[in-house]
Design a protein that fits this description.
- This protein is α/β, with parallel strands linked by helices.
- 34% of the residues lie in helices and 19% in strands.
- The strands form four sheets. Strands 1, 2, 3, 6, 12, 13 and 14 form a seven-stranded mixed beta sheet that branches. Strands 9-8-10-7-11 form a five-stranded mixed beta sheet, with helices on one face.
Length: 376
């Protein structure tokens, strides 16, 4: 945990935790990533909302957010009870006083959470939990198997101009993520290919390391056909717009494969960034009892197993891989990266004070990435 974040959080007065869960208020408003809250409308096999609503009377309303910055903006506006926050947003929400501490004693299934996630730094501050782990996984390199008969071995296919295995250039045929956190992907690539920079964390960059990452992204800018943030638009681009490679989520890979399209994914030799998402409760949640009921449901129901299959992610509850509560299997969890936890550089919020001294804070990532996209 960085001292800057701790100083901001330490200056706040913690919201009192709930001490008991009562009757549901009849509604629950959640900000979530695409595909995270399914009620069988997209595919009848994937539904972890209907039974929850029937059992609790808490009717679930979902607002889909495409980026972590959008999630933070929505939580700042208010009107939501929960958010499925990634690590590059969660500490910002804590520091901003927008989420409240969670009383894990009110969540019976807390003991089943993966021990690697229970006290993770992106939702736990000074021993206080500000959320319940939801799901985790890597950012993958998605590619067209007709263009790449064999899986790409490096992220260079989306960072450096080259001819691809089909003999055509990658220029105009690749994409990049439309979010400042993508700077970390460039830094992670440079950790492997330019060790003299001395990067030890893609989220803790001094001025020289940061400049090198921006320079790489400016090269990438000449290659990309679109900066994506909407999963479904990216899916359409792979189907209809000639895109053949991009950083992506397993969610898009799975949907494209389900349609029989020539799509696969890989984690190249450099490794990958990734996300560990957490259900966090708004400080002014209008439906706190329904929120606590949902957080328990998220750990104890078929959600963990089925969402793992649907999104191509790893459950926050390891037993969901094998206990038959849903569609997931031990083999499926292994394929999704269960054993790769230590190989993933999980999203977190860049701040100005870090282990190496002074680092470039997130607000600069935001403004500078806008400049990169704009060609500056």
């Amino acid at each position: 945990m960085t001292t800057t974040i701790l100083a901001v959080i330490g200056a706040q007065t913690a919201t009192a935790q709930m001490t008991a869960v009562g009757e549901g208020e009849g509604a629950l408003n959640i900000v979530a990533w695409a595909g995270y809250i399914e009620r069988g409308e997209t595919d009848p096999a994937y539904d972890w909302v209907t039974k929850f609503e029937a059992d609790t009377g808490c009717m679930v309303n979902v607002k889909t957010a495409n980026t972590s910055d959008e999630m933070v903006a929505l939580m700042n506006e208010g009107g939501f009870d929960l958010v499925t926050s990634s690590g590059d947003a969660s500490l910002r929400l804590v520091a901003g006083g927008k989420v409240q501490p969670i009383n894990i004693d009110l969540i019976p299934s807390w003991s089943t959470v993966d021990d690697r996630l229970k006290d993770a730094s992106w939702h736990t501050v000074d021993g206080v939990h500000y959320g319940v782990p939801y799901m985790w996984g890597p950012n993958v390199l998605m590619y067209n198997t007709e263009t790449f008969p064999e899986a790409p071995t490096s992220w260079n296919v989306v960072f450096e101009e080259m001819d691809l295995p089909d003999g055509a250039t990658n220029k105009g045929r690749v994409q990049a993520y439309d979010g400042p956190i993508h700077i970390a992907d460039a830094a992670h690539y440079l950790m492997f290919h330019n060790p003299d920079l001395g990067i030890t964390s893609p989220y803790e960059l001094n001025e020289d390391q940061y400049k090198a990452a921006l320079d790489l992204l400016r090269t990438q800018r000449t290659l990309v056909s679109r900066y994506w943030h909407d999963a479904f638009i990216q899916i359409d681009d792979f189907k209809n717009e000639g895109v053949v490679a991009s950083g992506s989520w397993p969610f898009q890979v799975g949907l494209l494969q389900s349609e029989g399209l020539p799509i696969a994914s890989t984690i190249p030799e450099e490794g990958a960034t990734g996300w560990a998402d957490t259900s966090m409760m708004h400080v002014d949640a209008e439906h706190p009892n329904c929120a606590y009921k949902w957080m328990e449901h998220s750990l104890s129901s078929n959600l963990q197993s089925d969402l793992s299959v649907w999104f191509g992610a790893v459950p926050a509850v390891p037993a969901a891989c094998t206990d038959g509560r849903g569609l997931q299997t031990a083999e499926g969890c292994t394929a999704n990266g269960l054993d790769d936890f230590d190989k993933i550089a999980f999203w977190t919020t860049p701040v100005s004070t870090c282990e190496q001294g002074d680092c470039v804070p997130y607000y600069r990532w935001v403004s500078d990435y806008i400049g990169v996209i704009g060609g500056r």
